[in-house]
Write a structure and sequence with these properties.
Helix 6 links the parallel strand 8 and strand 9. The chain is of the alpha/beta class. The strands form three sheets. A six-stranded mixed sheet has the order 7-8-9-4-10-11, with helices on both faces. Helix content is about 35%, strand content about 30%.
């Protein structure tokens, strides 16, 4: 079996009736993707691009209007029961609403193992192993209502693995998590992929984690896949964009500084300005980065701005995402 997930012109059209007039919305439009076994595959797109609808069709929650797909070699229309036994699904949510808060973690997992027809003796061994893997053993008897959000996410990830599926559909698993919990969740997902060999189809709005985790990325817009490649190949799309990055340590008026930099003749536009640790990183699109570096540094000196570095900046996944989904000129 060559692919873990393979779609063939997968399409979903929703009917909407507004003031008695029928409207048809094509949420997913003839999508063709192939995900290899053991691959960590990212699915990106702005809100309304069709990511979640695509995942729900692959999970057999909704039927396609046209086309089909295979999950672990099974057709989502003809063999839905075999498809469902092949994957674990995690739908991002805040607060762990899909768990039973008046039960502890162990009892939650026992209940879901029963629903998934996992034999009792196998379920007991698997639950013990999952609790250890997710470092929940010492808290397994506590009620879920007393868990932190990060701990609830761990229980939901464990639940998705109860029947030991080869494929995981992770729909925004870090949504609503604090920084530490998000880092821990990414670590666990990476371990599931690299140590346990799980194929992971992953959606997120966090460009950093997508670039950090995914071997290959498909970008969706208006229901269609408009790019499908490894991050390194996607970055090549913006090789003609020249940029410098300024790392500012201390500044009295950031907006005034950014405005002054944007007015330099060599600067085409300010790409972004964001806090990173104790510094502020400003990225500038320029005509020539090597010519721009001393000019930008000189300007910062004249403004009395304390900075750590002015350096050439490589295109980011976020730059590519914005260009493709918004059609921005470079």
């Amino acid at each position: 079996m060559e692919y873990a997930v393979e779609t063939s012109d997968l399409t979903k059209v929703f009917e909407n009736k507004e003031e008695g007039v029928k409207q048809y919305i094509k949420a997913v439009d003839h999508v063709n993707i192939k995900v290899k076994h053991g691959e960590f595959f990212g699915l990106l797109g702005p809100n309304g691009a069709g990511k979640t609808t695509l995942i729900k069709m692959l999970c057999t929650i909704i039927l396609p209007t046209e086309g089909t797909a295979k999950v672990n070699g099974y057709d989502i229309i003809k063999e839905p029961h075999k498809v469902r036994s092949s994957f674990g699904w995690f739908h991002g949510e805040t607060g762990g609403r899909s768990l039973y808060w008046r039960l502890n973690a162990e009892d939650n997992l026992k209940f879901y193992a029963y629903l998934q027809n996992v034999p009792k003796d196998i379920a007991e061994k698997r639950i013990k192993a999952l609790l250890e893997f997710f470092e929940l053993t010492k808290d397994s008897k506590k009620l879920v209502k007393d868990y932190s959000t990060g701990m609830k996410v761990k229980v939901m990830l464990a639940r998705a693995l109860l029947h030991n599926p080869p494929i995981l559909f992770m729909d925004e698993p870090t949504i609503g998590l604090d920084t530490i919990s998000a880092v821990e969740t990414r670590r666990l997902l990476k371990a599931l992929n690299s140590e346990l060999g799980k194929t992971i189809v992953f959606t997120s709005h966090n460009m950093f984690e997508v670039e950090q985790l995914c071997e290959r990325i498909a970008i969706m817009k208006d229901g269609r896949v408009i790019a499908d490649a490894p991050p390194s190949v996607l970055r090549e799309m913006l090789r003609d964009v020249h940029a410098v990055e300024v790392e500012i340590r201390e500044v009295d008026d950031l907006s005034k500084t950014v405005e002054a930099l944007s007015n330099l003749s060599i600067v085409k536009k300010v790409m972004d300005a964001k806090n990173e640790s104790s510094n502020v990183i400003v990225r500038l699109q320029v005509d020539d980065e090597y010519e721009a570096i001393p000019i930008v540094a000189s300007k910062l000196h004249s403004l009395g701005v304390k900075f750590s570095a002015v350096r050439r900046s490589e295109p980011t996944l976020e730059d590519i995402f914005v260009k493709l989904t918004r059609g921005e000129e470079t």
